[in-house]
């Protein structure tokens, strides 16, 4: 049975094939190491019912947990330290002695959490050995929390941090949150919305910084550093300077002084995140300066304190005229940032959305990945289900992230997951990940209880992008529901969810057939005449945008190999064929059926698969906590209603456009 | 030059071909008569610069204004009283003596206002005689003002009455407002939104009633009675009864007691207005009772105090499924209320929207008019420009009201305007009009200064539905801008506006191609898959709903003659042909061109006409007050942008559906 608040920290009575020691010796003394020791003590208690005691002076002849950082653990046993990266750890189970060594204190903490997971997963036995290190240095989550307590694109209750214009949180709950995040490897958290409006602009003033400092102190023992979202025009709006021009010395000075104030209260702040010149937010363009001018100026203010600037690349003309075909929004990020490669200071990190649009159900990977060789950058994913069902519809995101990570960027012959690595000048390395998180004040954190798997999966994949969706689904299901048939069935359910959602959504990567603003449910022409640049231009014979060299030229932003693959409908992946090509409805796809018939088929199938998921959930009733069963049941029911709307509106829309009936004579409303 | 706050009460220095007396004798003593005398005194001062004095004792040998009600005026001169209806008046100018006699005190007030208008219009001379009576007994405006100070569908600033949950108004401004309304003949005003939510439910509690009473006192000298919007479930939500069932004696008793309380504070309250069982508002359906059960119960509570219940007929299933063709929203009002004809108490007045939908740019007249022979009712129009351009686009509504009033309802062979008359059992009389007003806190009252003409025009047409749009445009223009070329040009501009707006809007009466929720600008499929029942079902060969006997049967709700006219596309008025018929794009219309080509033509023309209006306004610059010129100029510019979106989106939409180009090769975006 699942206690939904506890997520992957369920209470258990497990039996272990080794005798667990009743003493913990820790040779490290820092704040994080102390937390690691407490987590081990509490975790053993949670899983077995008994609590080992902590001893200060190690008795090497005694069976015990020996934990610490590598440097001091060498007193107890020998293992080559150079096998580990920062944040790495090793675990060794030898004749009732258990060694957990971290490369550093965070590594120790991760090692403890991993040991506890392995215990839960039934993998700890005599002779067990493992070591692991995070592949990504930067494993970030972004909160889009507003100071009024709402959460932009939040579907799990109000903000965990703010209410009514001030910091307002349950510190016990925030510590629980930090534990959840750290246990899966997260090491950075931005706490406020990148759209920094109203009172959020005051976050970098003394009154609010004092409170932010207290929040940082809760996350600190968990190895998680805070990031603050700041408004680029603060020198003007907050500082009352006549300008926020990044090249104006008074502006640079203002930010330097402000940085000093910020670091007075949060000495280990990771840095600032900035959404500039995007969707109405201010930025350097206002002063005819480049993104590099803007980011570097901020970076120089943070540099003395070791801070970094995370600069979002979600920049495009959001006042486009639908009549104007000279411009393609998909080209924007590359066009803006590729020419600036090498122009950014070394403490600037570009945060690039995984695709050229905006977290659609199926988009190609942005051509910026693989192109930037001299600029630090991370990939931005989205855990909160903005376009993927609002945590009403079940949609297990690691499935699509796996596809993204397996994309061969074609430069230096590497897949995205192979490119994840610390920065190295001249290589297209991706330093890590950021993602808008899916958590809020709901008791189960994520609205849909099964959406906890997306948070867990994101953290695990950022730790090591080689993890598969199936590995994550299996692991999460056992940690949450305990070993057994229920966990196996829930893992299968998770793995069925993304394909179903994709089928009943906008077809074949055409994107944006969703209700404007809300972003839930269909509105097939909702964006068709808007200013957002995301058109499908369906007419009575064809649909999609020609983004090849003969069209908008977007395909030319990729490596030669990928340009070739995407430019030819015969080689272009069909799940995103309408993103790259304008095709007639009678275009014959690889399965021998027309595009139109494939649209019909996928939409009938998507609905059927959603119906099957609901049935499977009902079949699980007796194995589940009533509260968990019922809250998810109502969501599966709403999902089916949503799938029905998608199916019928999409099918009717194309039937009305073409007059061509389904070849299997299924019901399409006229 | 226009002072926009003063509307049709501009200051002037006019010269008059008669010597205006310098004394006013009034033989009536009531509150309204006293107001009439003051209005005469101030009005003469406003128009001529000199102020006549009031004398108590009439000197019959002296040149003077003799004013009063007929009964006492008979002492001064002889005219048959039976020529006037309630609210009627006569004016007589004889050898420098001026007689203004009202059938009653409101009639006197209307006579004074009319005299002042005639003076402005240059029609007063020696020997002038006129008499006039209102054709409609009920000349109502509705405010959709919320207690928080917002105005539902308001485009002219915040509420004149409420703010932040309480009554909050400038009593001088409210008196000016009452003067404006009364001068054009309005005699009823409902002050709060028919969607009675949140604090507005408290309006019928002592604390708020005390304040409402003060407001009523401002309107009272102007012959205007207050109406309150009430929530049908008040006995439950306010009174804490277990039910609001209209047949429950405790509910009826609750309302009786509540009515006594209300009338304690507003002894001359006209009554309650109720939106029941509509768009989520509570009503008798909840208790399996009829509208008659609900309305009559309330009517019996108000009856002892002379109050009336105004019961809106805007009732339909607002949870329709777009797939379900068994139901047609257009049929709803008739289906709900025709069977109840005769079932309502004599102090119940049904308020019926002019058309079957919801104030669309072009709708047929509701078949309820002409059908109800035993039930008191009024017609509801809309002055606020919800679907007609938000007081950004110029749209002179008397133009379409004239069409509505000229509709031959076919029963008893009468046009709507011939049916406007006091109630008489067995006749299809319409007792008057109600309309959501277009006023707010903007200095010019109506956002677009020229939208003042809609308020004036509504009031004049409710006074006498025989007035033409041209008469009203001419009269309003002279009263506002003074006699001369400017007024003539502005009158022409007004008269061009509705045809232009209609052309660039949804074509040929198909309705609802407007942005959902907002109701400004195009969104051609915005309502196509919604729950609101207003579909056009355009496909690649045809558009519109067959509402004939072979379709939804809506046409069968009309008189035989009208059923025949509407059922045949050849006789159906073409400006609403797509409301009644589903037509192929190649259907040939009376001008010999296809439906599709007519859609293209009207949309190109509508844009051109909007462009011409902007040019005409620019040409008027030197004759206009800077403030008036510029605020309207920015609106004409936005209107042109709106017309462009309508033109291009509509044309592109149909071009994409059909692939057929404009025969004149004008630009249609693909």
Quick take:
Two copies of one chain form a homodimer. Chain A has helices at residues 31-48, 70-73, 105-120, 171-184, 206-219, 234-237, 249-265, 291-302, 332-337, 398-405, 416-419, 452-463, 469-481, 485-504, 560-567, 577-580, 595-619, 626-658; strands at residues 23-26, 53-55, 65-69, 89-94, 97-102, 129-132, 138-142, 162-163, 166-167, 188-190, 225-229, 271-274, 308-312, 348-353, 377-382, 432-436, 542-543, 583-584.
How many alpha or pi helices of chain A? 18
Look at the structure and name the CATH superfamily of the largest domain in chain A: Glycosidases
**Under the CATH scheme, which class of the largest domain in chain A?**
Alpha Beta
Sheet-strand content of chain A, in percent, reads 5-15%
Kindly report how far apart the N and C termini of chain A lie. Answer: 47 Å
Name the largest protein-protein interface in this structure.
A-B, 24 and 24 residues
Q: Rounded to an integer, what's the Rg of chain A over CA atoms?
A: 26 Å
Structural domains of chain A: how many = 3
CATH level-3 fold name of the largest domain in chain A: TIM Barrel
Give structural notes.
Two copies of one chain form a homodimer. By secondary structure, chain A is of the alpha/beta class. Chain A folds into three domains: 4-132, 2-Layer Sandwich (Chitobiase, domain 2); 138-467, Glycosidases (TIM Barrel, Alpha-Beta Barrel), CATH 3.20.20.80; 504-658, Alpha-Beta Complex (Alpha-d-glucuronidase, C-terminal Domain), CATH 3.90.1330. Chain A contains 18 helices and 18 strands. Chain A has helices spanning 31-48, 70-73, 105-120, 171-184, 206-219, 234-237, 249-265, 291-302, 332-337, 398-405, 416-419, 452-463, 469-481, 485-504, 560-567, 577-580, 595-619, 626-658; strands spanning 23-26, 53-55, 65-69, 89-94, 97-102, 129-132, 138-142, 162-163, 166-167, 188-190, 225-229, 271-274, 308-312, 348-353, 377-382, 432-436, 542-543, 583-584. In chain A, the strands form four sheets. An eight-stranded parallel beta barrel of chain A has the order 7-10-11-12-13-14-15-16. In chain A, strands 2-1-3-5-4-6 form a six-stranded mixed β-sheet. In chain A, strands 8-9 form a two-stranded antiparallel ribbon. In chain A, helix 1 (31-48) links the parallel strand 1 (23-26) and strand 2 (53-55). The longest helix of chain A is centred in the C-terminal third of the chain and has 33 residues, at 626-658. The first copy, chain A, is globular, with a radius of gyration of 26 Å. The model of chain A has no long low-confidence stretch (mean pLDDT 96). Chain A binds chain B through residues 322-323, 522-526, 529, 537-541, 645, 648-649, 652, 655-659, 669-670, and chain B through 322-323, 522-526, 529, 537-541, 645, 648-649, 652, 655-659, 669-670.
């Amino acid at each position: 049975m699942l206690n939904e608040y506890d997520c992957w920290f369920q209470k258990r009575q497990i039996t272990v094939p080794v005798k667990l020691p009743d003493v913990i010796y820790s040779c490290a003394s820092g704040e994080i190491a102390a937390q690691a020791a407490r987590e081990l003590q509490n975790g053993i208690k949670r899983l077995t019912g008994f609590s080992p005691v902590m001893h200060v002076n190690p008795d090497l002849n005694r069976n015990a947990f020996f934990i610490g950082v590598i440097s001091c653990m060498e007193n107890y046993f020998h293992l080559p330290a150079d096998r580990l990266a920062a944040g790495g750890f090793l675990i060794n189970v030898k004749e009732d002695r258990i060694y957990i060594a971290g490369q550093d204190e965070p590594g120790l903490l991760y090692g403890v959490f991993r040991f506890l997971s392995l215990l839960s997963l039934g993998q700890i036995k005599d002779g067990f050995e493992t070591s692991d290190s995070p592949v990504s240095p930067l494993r970030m989550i972004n909160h889009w929390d507003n100071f009024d307590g709402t959460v932009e694109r939040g579907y799990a209750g109000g903000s965990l941090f703010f209410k009514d214009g001030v910091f307002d949180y349950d510190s016990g709950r925030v510590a629980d949150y930090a534990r959840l995040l750290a246990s899966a490897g997260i090491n950075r958290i931005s706490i406020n919305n990148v759209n920094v409006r109203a009172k959020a602009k005051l976050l970098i003033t003394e009154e609010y910084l004092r409170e932010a400092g207290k929040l940082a102190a809760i996350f600190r023992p968990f190895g998680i550093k805070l990031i603050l979202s700041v408004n680029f025009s603060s020198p003007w709006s907050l500082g009352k300077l006549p300008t926020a021009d990044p090249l104006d010395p008074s502006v640079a000075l203002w930010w330097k002084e402000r940085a000093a104030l910020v670091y007075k209260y949060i000495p280990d702040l990771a840095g600032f995140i900035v959404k500039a010149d995007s969707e109405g937010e201010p930025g350097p363009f206002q002063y005819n300066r480049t993104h590099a001018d803007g980011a570097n100026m901020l970076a120089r203010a943070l540099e003395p304190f070791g801070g970094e600037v995370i600069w979002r690349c979600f920049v495009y003309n959001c006042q486009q005229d639908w009549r104007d075909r000279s411009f393609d929004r998909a080209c924007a990020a590359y066009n803006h940032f590729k020419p600036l490669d090498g122009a950014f200071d070394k403490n600037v990190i570009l945060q690039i959305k995984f695709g050229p649009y905006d977290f659609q159900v199926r988009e190609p990977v942005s051509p910026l990945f693989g192109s930037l060789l001299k600029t630090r950058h991370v990939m931005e994913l989205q855990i909160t289900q903005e376009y993927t069902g609002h945590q009403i519809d079940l949609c297990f995101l690691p499935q699509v992230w796996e596809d993204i990570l397996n994309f061969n960027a074609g430069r230096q012959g590497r897949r995205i997951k192979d490119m994840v690595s610390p920065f190295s000048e001249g290589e297209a390395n991706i330093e890590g990940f950021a993602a808008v998180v899916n958590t809020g004040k709901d008791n189960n954190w994520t609205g849909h209880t099964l959406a906890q798997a997306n948070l867990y999966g994101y953290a695990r994949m950022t730790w090591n992008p080689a993890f598969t969706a199936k590995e994550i689904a299996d692991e999460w299901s056992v940690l949450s529901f305990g070993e057994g048939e229920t966990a196996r069935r829930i893992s299968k359910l998770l793995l069925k969810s993304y394909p179903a959602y994709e089928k009943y959504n906008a077809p074949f990567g055409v994107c944006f057939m969703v209700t404007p603003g809300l972003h839930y449910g269909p509105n097939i022409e909702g964006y068709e005449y808007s200013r957002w640049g995301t058109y499908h231009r369906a007419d009575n014979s064809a649909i999609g945008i020609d983004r090849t060299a003969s069209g908008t030229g977007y395909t030319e932003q990729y490596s030669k190999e990928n340009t070739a693959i995407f430019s030819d409908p015969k080689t272009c992946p069909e799940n995103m064929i309408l993103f790259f090509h304008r095709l007639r409805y009678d275009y014959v796809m690889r399965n021998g059926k027309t595009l139109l018939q494939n649209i019909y088929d996928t939409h009938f199938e998507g609905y059927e698969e959603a119906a099957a998921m609901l049935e499977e959930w009902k079949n699980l009733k007796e194995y589940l906590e009533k509260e968990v069963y019922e809250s998810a049941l109502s969501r599966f029911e709403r999902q089916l209603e949503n799938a029905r709307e998608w199916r019928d509106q999409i099918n009717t829309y194309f039937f009305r456009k073409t007059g061509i009936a389904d070849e299997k004579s299924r019901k399409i409303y006229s």
